[in-house]
Amino acid sequence: MFATILIANRGEIACRVIDTCRRLGVRTVAVHSDVDRGARHVAMADEAVSLGGAAPADSYLRGDAIIEAARATGAEAIHPGYGFLSENPAFVEAVEAAGLVFIGPSASAIRAMGLKDAAKDLMEKAGVPVVPGYRGENQDPAHLARQAGDIGYPVLIKAVAGGGGKGMRRVEAPDAFADALEAAKSEAAKAFGNDHVLIEKWIASPRHIEVQVFGDGTRALHLFERDCSLQRRHQKVIEEAPAPGMTPEMRAAMGDAAVRAAEAIGYSGAGTVEFIVDGSDGLRPDGFWFMEMNTRLQVEHPVTEAITGVDLVEWQLRVASGEPLPAAQEDLTIEGHAFEARLYAEDAENGFLPQTGRLTHLRFPPGVRAETGVRAGDTISPWYDPMIAKVVVHGPTRATALLSLERALAGTRVAGTVTNLAFLRRLARHEGFRAGDVDTGLIDRDIAALSARPEPSSQVRALAALAALGLDRPQWQEGAHLWTPLAWTARLVSRGDEMTARVEARGGGSCRVTLEDAAHEVTRDGGWRIDGAPVAAEVAHGPGVVHVFDDDAHSFDVPDPLAVDAAGGAASGLVEAPMPGLVKAVFVETGATVAQGDRLAVLEAMKMEHVLTAPRDGTVAEVLATAGTQVEAGAPLIRMEEE
Ligand code: ADP
Ligand code: ADP
Ligand code: MG
Fold this sequence. Notes:
Elements: E1 4-7, H1 11-24, E2 27-33, H2 40-44, E3 47-52, H3 63-73, E4 77-79, H4 89-97, E5 101-102, H5 107-114, H6 116-125, E6 133-134, H7 141-151, E7 155-159, E8 168-171, H8 177-192, E9 197-201, E10 206-216, E11 220-232, E12 235-241, H9 248-264, E13 268-278, E14 288-294, H10 301-308, H11 312-320, E15 337-344, E16 346-347, E17 353-354, E18 357-358, E19 361-363, E20 369-372, E21 379-380, E22 387-395, H12 398-410, E23 413-415, H13 421-428, H14 431-434, H15 442-445, H16 447-451, H17 458-468, H18 475-479, E24 487-494, E25 497-505, E26 510-514, E27 519-525, E28 527-530, E29 533-535, E30 538-542, E31 545-549, E32 553-557, E33 574-576, E34 581-586, E35 593-594, E36 599-605, E37 608-613, E38 618-623, E39 630-631, E40 636-640
Parallel strand pairs: 1-2, 1-4, 2-3, 4-5
Antiparallel strand pairs: 6-9, 7-8, 7-9, 10-11, 10-13, 11-12, 12-15, 13-14, 15-22, 16-17, 18-21, 19-23, 20-22, 24-25, 25-26, 26-27, 27-28, 28-29, 30-31, 31-32, 33-40, 34-36, 34-39, 35-38, 36-37, 38-40
Helix pairs in contact: 4-5, 12-13
Cofactor: biotin
Domain Biotin carboxylation: 1-448
Domain Lipoyl-binding: 564-641
């Protein structure tokens, strides 16, 4: 085993690799861009090397700087993660030329699978079923249109250099072909610097089922399949293993084909063979075709780990360091069922636009495998993939695992940016998905219902009003009756709409919240009770914002009513409480000499701490506040000696 490796990546996958290295006692070196200096993967690694600017071309794609960093830190091997340099054969060659080990396949294996047309030719020769279609050199539009006609509509135009769903167009009929071809070619030219396309038959009721393979350079085995049919714009959203409805015959046929594919190119390490499956009539051993091979660890590898008990990163390290394959095919079995949901900073309601922002809250329920590269307080920057986390669950059956997924998503607390969490929750409850009736069109067919933003109920708004007033904490119960006034008005802004709520304190720690369209009696005893019934909701605060989490996450901006000068009593030398609150601390005693701006006391209100400072230089004449007491607005806290 290696003593030290360098991880040429960032985010969740870098953290994921470090996790395994720690368990195996392998020292880790992280690399990072300027904006990632304080990132989670950097904090987790034993050592970190700065690569340069935020743009990937200035940092994570700088193969020469990465190899130099490996040399300087004594790393023997480089793990590429996924994306970035993971499928770049020139980088593999440079790593090897520097006397280091690339934790992944050979440059020639990556090249063999790099272009979809050449890969398909190769697979056909190896006896792997390939989607019928045209993949010739002749790129003349008229010629391609004729080929499409021969294949039969609908067809799919694909960039031969494609990836991540780019450069792909489905065409329904001949009259739409020319425009679609032009769009696909221009997208491909921009994204991959190569505008060559191939044309495939569009498979009806398509399901995306892929097989995890693992090779030692000669022999290969497979670790069963994953179903990744839940897609948006050809990108995966929720993945699962095993595939619903899979039969032993089909699994054997797909597994054999995938192993043949890997062995045909002398594959070493972890890889994935993706197949498109005709799901219109159940799964049949003659109804699947090779699409492409991803020559790296795949984003969704954890579902395979969950059902096989294998740590794929450990296998990668062991095989790369010269050990034989850690298991034989017959040792591998499937246990239970697993799901992975990709949590992104994106606005599902607005065309899934990527979002940025500082994550003020980030918490996953206990027992859930959450793969993440960020912590609460970290920022989703515009520079990289907006993935926040992968939520992975495992259960004895598909139904129990899906229930665990629903619970895991319902218990996930994330705030500070718009996310696709509500979308994922709805998807996890989707009837067709629940029934295992999946195909790649499922999300699109129901996109409006799945992506609509949740409307906050009047109960949610009532809780938000209490939170906006800082009345959502347990001490409110004891403190409420002491407070004057006994009624407040909360102002909340939700998606640009301002709303007000009248809150009156009642006896026994209860409040009446009157909204424009409803009124509720809200009580806090451990959890929340609304109109007498317990509600499973949580309240959280961020700067200028309150969040209420029920099955969804609702955020409300709180316009600052406290833009008051905490040193308002400067002239009189009297320091008063600018709002009702709890005196958290008092820093001065009678007779103390203070300078203007020195901290005198801290008042906690609206869930924020307000530091009260000395209005001028002078001496403290009298301390009227005691830490731990609740005070009213305007209560005198500290009196300074006359000038
Ligand atoms: P997978 O096939 O492993 O599930 P995806 O299909 O989601 O992965 O993405 C394909 C590849 O594109 C992955 O290697 C992923 O890391 C990479 N990728 C996706 N988005 C970005 C991005 N914004 N920047 C760099 N790489 C990306
Ligand atoms: P990429 O390299 O962008 O991942 P793929 O060839 O893997 O491209 O295709 C991406 C997705 O497009 C698949 O997961 C599947 O949903 C869909 N797809 C690809 N080929 C076909 C096809 N022939 N018929 C129907 N859907 C397809
Ligand atoms: Mg693919």
